Amino acid sequence: MENNLPIPTTLPGVEHLINELYKPNPPETISQIQEALQRLQKSPQGWQLAQSLLARPGDNIKFFGALTIIVKLNTERLSDDDALSVLQNLITWLVQSLSDGSGPIVIRKLCSALVTYYIHYSHTWTKCLRHLIYSLGRDAAVPIEEIGDALPLDQVISELSTQKFLAASWFAATLAEETEKVDTKSTKYISLHERVLDNANDVAALMASALVPLDEASNIPSQREAINCLQAWFLYAQRTPKQPLIQILQALVQPLVNCLLVEDLYETTVELLTDTLSNWQQFFTRQHINSLYALFESEWAQQRYQDLLKGDFDFDAVQFGLFMLAFGDAQMVEMMDTTDTRAQAFLAGLAGLLTARGHPAAEDKIFVPALELWSAFVENLVDTLYSESTNNLPWDKPPLSQVMQVVSHSWQKIQYPSPEVYNSWDSTDKAGFGDARKDVADFLQAVYTISGLPLISFFVNLILRALSNSAWAELEAASFCLGALSDCFSEGNSYDDALTKVFGSSLFDLLRQGQNIIPVRSRQTCLYLIERYSEYFVRHAEYLPAALNLLFSAVADRHLALPSSKSIFTLCSSCRKLLTSEIDAFLEQYSALRNNQDLDSLAEERVIGAIAAIIQSLPSEEHKSNAVRRLLAMVGVDVSACLQFKSTHGNTLVDQNDPMVFRAFDISQRPTSPILAHEVASLLAIRALRCLCSVAKGLQAPVDLDSDDESTLAGSSRDLEQVHADITEILVQLKDLFSNNAEVVDAICTILRAGFSESDPGPFVFPSQTVTELIISNWQSRIATVVNTASAFASSLNAGRFKQHAVPTLGALLPWVFNLLHQLPDPEADPELSQYGIEFAQRVLSRRPEVLISQTPNVLEFLFTFAMKLLNGNEPLPKAAAAEFWTTFVTAKSDDPNVQSTLNDAMLHFGPQLSQSLMQNIGGRASRSDLDKLSDPLKKLIFQHVHASKWLEAALNDPNFPSDKVSSEDKALFVKKLVSLRGGRATNQVVRDFWLACRGSNYAYAS
Amino acid sequence: MATGAQNFYELYRRSSASCSLARSIGGALTDTLDDLITQDNIDPQLAMKVLANFDRAIAEVLQDKVRSRLSFKGSLDTYRFCDEVWTFQLKNVAFKMENGGQLVNAERVKIVSCTAKPTGATA
């Protein structure tokens, strides 16, 4: 930035500028002032300026003086004599500032300046803290040579005023903080860290004087600062582990623990202890651990513990809980030892933390962290029990009995409160409570690995007990827990007996009696429970009718529509083979459901998809076609209504109570006044198409059949052809009218795609000509999605069913795609279309190169130029797609000698251009994250083509190469490395290194 | 008053960079920082700090905030444990999304897992 502020030549001028710097000024002014002051600081007069400023009144002025000293120390090298002179001055200014009423910012900055001095000139100031303390004691900078180990430091410290003690503590803390940032592994700084260590005893003496006061009168500010200083030294010792230092600091742990009992020091102390226990457990000796156990057993701790359990979730109370958890984390191994009674007692206390009053997250702030600890504990327990049989574990003795107690506490805690209480929570509390329930589910899954059946039985019994007691909140929580365990079940029926107790109980009957009996939330969870155990119903078809009847009866209830429809879909999908004989009943159920004006659209999609899954299992094509036609007839009602509304005049309104308006809008979005017929039409179109999507997905075969099974080719019956015609008619009609609606286009594409992966004929496995005609027809929006669908279609053409149609189909699709790309004003005008278009070309090239090569020279020239432009462009996704296209092109092979010859000629033509583009990109033009993708064509090029190194060298030496940071030798070496790697994986790293060399060291900040 | 002694892995800076078209958050962030350096808007030291913060934040967010879960089943092909890093290669893996969601199949899956606290985080 250009600076138009002149550098002041007088001290008042500088002072004015400094004062302006700290006033609210526009950012440009601040920048200009900063720039001017920085130039002053760096000038030869900087030392003199700092000295003058530190002698002036005003905290800002003094602060800037100290800052100037730091800048000078960091940027200039002084002789030892000059350095010592600076040190004496700094201490003098510090002493003066302590007596002239300067604010803490000045004192702290001067302490920082002293530490900066120490980092650069520690050899001249080995006993830095001792010297500083003596100087503070004498109110003057004492000559360094007067300081020796024999001097009575403790006495001097005890005589320091609070202000002086704080200054010494700040210096000691900053010393640890700043030297911790200096590389501990560099040989350059080994001596610095050794000298820091030489001061550790003095630091400990300073801290101990505050933490263990000789007289009764404690000084809270000094003690608090001593704890802060200790934190800095703990961190330093952790990063630079030296046994003597650790031992010195360990001696201060007991005095630190004692500070917990001082109310004013509790918060600072408990945080330091908690952090250290969490991050550096090894620091604590056996003696410390014993002391902490004694602390937790003390009356003081018991009182805090009880306060927490009674629902005191103030900051201090929660901190105590976290302190307990950190200690528990450090004592994990001991707590698994059944003979360690003290650890077992503490473990019981940790279990008790889960019984604190209030609902997790919303009120109880300790539940989630406590449960996290228990999850970790159980995982550790699993590791130790791994080799043992889980059949004979002592579940009645600690620690396993404690685990079961936690299970018991947890499921009780996650019971929902009354709706009034729940609704009074804000969204964060509700989400937190929901997350806590998920944490419990995680925990239970961990417990399951050592428990197995007993845990299942535990929740089964709770469900039965809740049913008999009509305890619905308990029923909900127990069902949630049992549902959470369904993921743990391996294949088999070993737990079916336990589950039969639930699914054979009165549960289904009670659920069918409506929400007068069981509240909505409990019913929702129970319905999900059926879905979670759908495999059970495959093995126990006797309970399937009751379950499905229950679910279908619940779909009509808007509170239960989503869980019940989801369960219907899962159950019908899993048990499709068992349900084929009931297909008529299902179709009738669906027909009846459609009469319900409040039927949710998503629920309907799931139900119709579920029925389609059963249809898929019907034994004959005729049955399948008939059933699908019945479904289509029902969907056709919506389509007809949609067409009718669309045919009306543009301003025609429909009454909001019209039954088709109810179909168009879900209950929560219903209009309250007449609405445009065209809007209703487009919503009906979307609903009909989404139902068709669901049918198409439901009809997909559940397992992949052999795609080369030629026998399936003959399966196309007249019935099926008629179904194809019916569906296609719907798709074409809706496309012609609504393809300006993105949702309609998406739905039609999804329907088309559903058949691509199928190997057998089916209602949605359309003839390739039908798909092609639909794809290349006129679309008003989302053309990129249609091209992407064409890509998926091109990939599916290799399957046996479509193989014979591949060439004509691709021959029709290719010109359509190229024409779309040709219409773009430039390749990056529509990145999505460019990306999918080039992906389509890549797929054709990889599977049927002869089809691509058979295009006219003009078209091919356009395509390759287009792909080259994308590779040279900035749009990341099209660029990646282009890189993949070129990778495929470089390796393209054909059995046809004519095609291969054309490919070879094309390679010779485009090879130099491709090399040029790749080298421009790798030479610094590309983004860092593009490099891996760009390495792919490069690797193939080097491996496949004899001319590659020549092309690459020419590209690197091109006058337009984007970087001047690499020499000709570097470029030659780069090519040499690439060639020697022969396209191996290490090429990626070589490419990254070269890109970095071309960009320059400014970009070396990231690995 | 966190001691802040923990180191964080840098692996999320380039996570999923090898996926065909998916750009990782870390990759996008690094590209943006590169652009800002090119435009002289920031210096590399700041970029380094931003990335260090990203390493910490992404690790914390993935640990504390992400609640989505999935389970998967597959055949364990090979596994190894080297330098405190477990590597598993699985074949024919079926991923089951949360709440009985969609099933996703993959022919091959590689899982790299490191200890939550990198070595050196604690002395």
Describe the structure.
The complex is a heterodimer of chains A (1007) and B (123). Chain A contains 52 helices and 2 strands. Chain A has 1007 residues and is mainly α. Among the domains of chain A are: 1-76, no CATH class; 579-701 and 717-766, no CATH class; 781-863 and 874-883, no CATH class; 893-1006, no CATH class. Chain A has a two-stranded antiparallel sheet. In chain A, helix 26 runs parallel beside helix 29 (520-532). By secondary structure, chain B is an alpha+beta fold. Chain B folds into 2 domains: 11-65, Helix Hairpins (Orthogonal Bundle); 70-114, TATA box binding Protein, subunit D, domain 2 (Roll), CATH 2.30.18.10. Chain B has 2 helices and 3 strands, in the order ααβββ. In chain B, strands 1-2-3 form a 3-stranded antiparallel sheet, with no helix packed on it. In chain B, a hairpin with a 2-residue loop joins strand 1 and strand 2 (85-97). In chain B, helix 1 runs antiparallel to helix 2. Chain B is elongated. The model of chain B is unreliable at 1-5, 16-23 and 119-123 (pLDDT under 50). The A-B interface holds A 228, 231, 234-235, 237-239, 241, 268, 271-272, 275-276, 279-283, 435, 438, 442, 487, 528, 531-532, 566, 570, 835, 876-877, 880-881, 884, 927-929, 932, 999, 1001-1007 and B 1-6, 10, 13-14, 17-18, 20-21, 23-24, 27-28, 30-31, 33-34, 37, 43-45, 47-48, 51, 67, 69, 71, 96, 99-100, 121-123. Chain B: InterPro entries: TFIIA_a-hlx, TFIIA_b-brl, TFIIA_gsu, TFIIA_gsu_C, TFIIA_gsu_N. Chain B: It comes from Xylaria grammica. Chain B: One of its GO terms (cellular component) is transcription factor TFIIA complex.
